[in-house]
């Protein structure tokens, strides 16, 4: 298709930065608050080192330290308190920002989806929406509410510790940082090994998948012919191959990661501080007590550094989630004129003007379709499966817009009619019955919320479903899927009642009896024939006996109108329709209650 020709694609720039743009200021403030807060919470460590040094040196010289100790304790406690407050404030700001962006994203996705063509909503796209609206937004929550503050805290703690150590003694500071440099080097090696191993593992996983599909696909034959042993062989080989590849891939990775973690274990850091401390004391560069601040502060870098590593690792998941949400927000939308240019149809005749359409480029499903649906008449569309009947019906409902040509209602292009109004003019009962998780009454009044109980009941009586609704535990208040468990045919009659309540001048019925059982079919056909009177009907049927009284029958073949006329005219032609009729008559002779009456 080119959906592309019928849609407006807005915005191409992708990335997490775009998603977070509205709350960038708040996130920066949260990260800064957390960083400064984390710095302040480390002040007591320096205070403790200071007190310990002073007590050891000055008490030995008989100097009283009471005043200074209290001052340092007060500063330490004050800093700790202020630090905790700032970290909490950072968390609060980040959570408020998260709340804002989550609301904004959900609104933006919902507004976007309200404008995409109905044909976009398939099982696959529903899965994408669920993934983006629930899972991905939850992943983004961990990014917005926790990532920036955690990074702020980790960087704040690391920076203040490093600055503090360099301020005390640059030689000891450099020596203390050696294990952390080792950590980064081992981590880089682990990541390089990991990238290479993942490619090999993905290839092995592909082999397992193919072997599994092959094995499952042929299981019946394999068992029937007693060749299970041979069929298992390929599968076992693939599984063994994966296990071997897994061991050889993970061994160097695990080794590098173990080395990296060993580097930043507090005991390693303490060991390095002590070894270099003793060395520097022997060299006469520092005094024994000078080691104390390093012993206290250096291990406190380990946890933030590991946290930083985990956070950066998780960032790729959040980036993918952001890309999926953005993709949803950029879903192509239906092309419509500005609301000031909306028009009202002057009558209710529907005209297809040279309409062509294809789901994918280069493959037309409908080609040069032209016909008129006159008010008060029934037009039936017939043809073999895959001929394009449902696509034709869906074009009238703007599930998709034509690639070429146009469709008018009362002389107005469908694109110039407000979408909500369009569904007041054109009602539909489709093959796939869609009911929402709400009461039966709400489902019936979906397009007509102001309908009175009397109007609703009139519609359900015509659709032959009133008695069945009354038999439900809570009648019209029963909730679909909870205490209203309805069969396929009953659900379809509910949809018919919904269409009747809307009272549209044009009605599209796409295989409306498709999911009906033999008993229900009679009821559905009766309901439809009552309702059809005086309206323009477009009926898509695979059973010809239901439409033989139609005013006009269009025979579709490979997306083109191959024949058209009334039932007797088409039979006389002895062409495609006559062939189908013979076949159709044979298929449906067991049960048939034609859509007689309509307007024929
Ligand atoms: P009919 O109703 O006559 O059985 P359809 O209109 O359902 O035919 O389908 C016509 C052709 O379009 C078929 O080849 C079908 O595979 C294809 N088709 C239908 N729906 C889609 C879709 N959503 N995406 C891609 N191809 C589709």
Q: Which descriptors would you attach to this protein?
A:
elongated; alpha/beta; 600 residues; 60% helix; Rossmann fold; ATP-binding; ABC1_TM_dom; ABC_transporter-like_ATP-bd; ABC transporter transmembrane region fold; 20 helices; 4-stranded antiparallel β-sheet; binds adenosine-5'-diphosphate
Structure description:
It is a multi-pass membrane protein. This protein is of the alpha/beta class and 600 residues long. Helix 5 packs antiparallel against helix 11 (302-329). The protein has three domains: 1-169 and 318-334, Up-down Bundle (ABC transporter transmembrane region fold), CATH 1.20.1560; 175-285, no CATH class; 343-590, P-loop containing nucleotide triphosphate hydrolases (Rossmann fold). Mean pLDDT is 83; it is low at 1-13 and 586-600. The longest helix is centred in the first third of the chain and has 48 residues, at 66-113. Strand 9, helix 18 and strand 10 form a beta-alpha-beta unit. The protein has helices at residues 16-20, 24-41, 43-60, 66-113, 123-168, 170-217, 219-224, 228-263, 266-282, 291-297, 302-329, 389-396, 419-425, 440-444, 453-462, 466-470, 488-502, 518-532, 567-573, 576-588; strands at residues 7-8, 333-334, 350-357, 366-373, 378-383, 404-409, 412-413, 426-429, 506-510, 536-540, 552-557, 560-565. The strands form three sheets. Strands 8-9-10-5-11-12 form a six-stranded mixed beta sheet, with helices on both faces. 33% of the residues are buried.
């Amino acid at each position: 298709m080119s959906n592309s020709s019928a849609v407006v694609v807005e915005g191409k720039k992708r990335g997490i930065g775009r998603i977070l743009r509205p709350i960038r200021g708040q996130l920066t403030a949260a990260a800064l608050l957390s960083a400064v807060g984390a710095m302040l919470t480390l002040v007591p460590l320096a205070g403790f080192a200071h007190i310990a040094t002073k007590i050891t040196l000055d008490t030995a010289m008989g100097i009283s330290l009471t005043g200074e100790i209290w001052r340092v304790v007060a500063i330490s406690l004050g800093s700790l308190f202020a630090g905790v407050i700032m970290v909490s404030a950072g968390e609060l700001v980040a959570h408020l920002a998260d709340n804002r962006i989550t609301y904004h994203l959900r609104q933006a996705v919902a507004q976007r989806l309200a404008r995409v063509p109905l044909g976009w909503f398939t099982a696959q796209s529903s899965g994408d929406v669920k993934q983006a609206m629930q899972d991905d937004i939850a992943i983004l929550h961990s990014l917005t509410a926790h990532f920036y503050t955690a990074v702020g805290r980790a960087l704040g703690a690391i920076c203040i510790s490093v600055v503090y150590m360099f301020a005390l003694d640059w030689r000891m500071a450099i020596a203390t940082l050696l294990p952390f440099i080792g950590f980064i080097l081992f981590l880089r090696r682990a990541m390089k090994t990991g990238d290479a191993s993942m490619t090999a593992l993905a290839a092995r996983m592909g082999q397992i998948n193919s072997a599994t599909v092959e094995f499952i696909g042929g299981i019946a034959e394999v068992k029937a012919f007693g060749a299970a042993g041979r069929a298992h062989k390929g599968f076992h080989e693939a599984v063994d191959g994966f296990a071997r590849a897994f061991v050889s891939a993970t061994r160097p990775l695990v080794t590098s990661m173990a080395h990296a973690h060993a580097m930043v274990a507090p005991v390693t850091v303490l060991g390095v501080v002590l070894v270099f401390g003793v060395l520097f004391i022997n060299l006469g560069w520092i005094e024994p007590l000078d080691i104390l601040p390093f012993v206290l502060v250096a291990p406190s870098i380990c946890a933030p550094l590991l946290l930083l590593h985990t956070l950066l690792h998780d960032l790729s998941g959040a980036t993918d989630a952001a890309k999926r949400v953005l993709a949803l927000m950029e879903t192509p939308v239906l092309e419509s004129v500005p609301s000031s240019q909306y028009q009202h149809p002057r009558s209710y005749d529907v005209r297809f003007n040279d309409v062509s359409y294809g789901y994918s480029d280069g493959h037309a499903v409908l080609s040069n379709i032209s016909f008129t649906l006159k008010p008060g008449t029934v037009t039936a569309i017939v043809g073999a499966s895959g001929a394009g009947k449902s696509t034709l019906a869906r074009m009238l409902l703007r599930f998709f817009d034509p690639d070429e040509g146009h469709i008018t209602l009362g002389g107005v292009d469908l694109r110039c009619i407000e979408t909500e109004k369009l569904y007041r003019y054109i009602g539909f009962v489709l093959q796939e019955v869609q009911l929402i998780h709400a009461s039966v009454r709400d489902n019936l009044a979906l397009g007509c919320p102001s309908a009175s109980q009397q109007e609703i009941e009139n519609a359900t009586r015509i659709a032959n479903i009133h008695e069945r609704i009354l038999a439900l535990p809570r009648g019209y208040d029963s909730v679909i899927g909870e205490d209203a468990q309805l069969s396929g045919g009953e659900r379809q009659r509910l949809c018919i009642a919904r269409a009747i309540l809307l009272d549209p001048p044009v009605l599209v019925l796409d295989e409306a009896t498709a999911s009906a059982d033999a008993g229900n079919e009679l009821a559905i056909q009766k309901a439809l024939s009552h309702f059809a009177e005086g309206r323009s009907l477009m009926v898509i049927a695979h059973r010809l006996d239901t439409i033989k009284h139609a005013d006009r029958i269009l025979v579709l073949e490979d997306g083109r109108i191959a024949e058209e006329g009334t039932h007797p005219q088409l039979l006389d032609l002895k062409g495609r329709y006559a062939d189908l009729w013979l076949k159709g008559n044979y298929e449906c002779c067991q049960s048939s209650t034609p859509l007689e009456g309509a307007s024929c």
